[in-house]
Design brief:
Elements: H1 3-13, H2 21-36, E1 40-50, H3 52-59, E2 67-77, E3 83-93, E4 99-106, H4 125-133, E5 137-141, H5 158-179, E6 183-192
Parallel strand pairs: 4-5, 4-6
Antiparallel strand pairs: 1-2, 2-3, 3-5
Length: about 190
Amino acid sequence: MTDLNYFITTILMSSIPINNMKRFYTFILLLLTLNAYSQELESFDFLDSFTKDEISIQIGISVNYGVDLYKIRYYTPDLNGDQHIASGLLCVPQSQNLAFPLACYQHGTILNGRDDVPSNLQGGYTLALVFASYGYVVCAPDLLGLGDSPGIHPYIHAKSEASASVDMLYATIEMSEASELFYLNDQLFISGYS
């Protein structure tokens, strides 16, 4: 999110009354336009596949679906608003004819270096895998400065964590529409911890 986008969002979310509906809709249109450039899927690669039985054995309880894992690369703004590549893990339930809800799982603190992330099948990716095995298409962003993203991770920086997560959600929707490897319904769930 650019500084201008952040400023507009702050205005819209503040207690400043907006008396003119035309002005309000102009702000909304501007906000959507400024946000649109961020969500661009760069690429996706198949990583691995787990059957229902493999997941059940790994976690010790029965699950509903096998899961296919993809690494997604997408564009998101850095702390200066410049577009950079970010990466994340996408976990997709194995089903050819169902539309699933979209979920975003933000991993906890990474202690073992920039490569200890979900898209490398490390860094707590198992929870995203489990969510998917119960019928969610799960995005697990690596976050800025981790995985394929250049630079240093801005630890506990809410704005960049939020933008990387939202941009991965948009990239996942783009992937769904372009590839038809999976289908999404209109539900969205967000989870995470640190």
